[in-house]
Design brief:
single chain; alpha+beta; two-stranded antiparallel sheet; 5 strands
Length: 149
């Protein structure tokens, strides 16, 4: 369950996404390529009309949309690995990381820093890549600046 998005709102958003994907007979690649349009013109409107968060929906939506984007990227990578029969590499979301995985991605300098680790690619318990999923230029710039300390 996403940490920045309430579980009930996340469940609604997730269900609407899966239903839309099924109705449109889309693969995850197409969902990712059209994410902004799908999320803003379909998912947001569908969930907002049913949401109990009427007054602060925009704020809740921003964090949930970011988590939704991470989930779509995660699902697309899983789809690629499965279609190409690559079982030696796995993809994990931040919530799925164990303590040893978290420890191996931490930056130890003046202090211990956990980088923005939305997804990881892993082979034989070794981290191959850390992925940070961003939906806006502002997020990219601020996270990049932070990571360059």
């Amino acid at each position: 369950m996403p940490s920045r998005c309430s579980s009930d709102l996340w469940k609604s958003i997730y269900e609407v996404l899966l239903e839309y994907k099924k109705q449109q007979n889309m693969e995850w690649k197409a969902v990712l390529e059209n994410f902004e349009n799908i999320s803003e013109t379909y998912i947001r409107k569908e969930v907002q009309s049913k949401s109990e968060y009427k007054r602060n929906f925009d704020q809740a939506w921003k964090s949930c949309k970011g988590k939704l984007y991470e989930y779509v990227v995660y699902s697309y990578i899983k789809e690629i690995l499965e279609k190409n029969n690559i079982s030696s590499i796995s993809v994990k979301m931040e919530e799925e990381l164990g303590e040893s995985e978290k420890e191996s991605v931490q930056i130890h300098n003046w202090d211990t820093i956990m980088p923005d680790t939305d997804l990881i690619l892993e082979r034989d318990s070794r981290i191959l890549a850390i992925l940070s999923c961003k939906t806006s230029l502002r997020e990219r710039l601020t996270e990049t600046g932070f990571g360059l300390h």
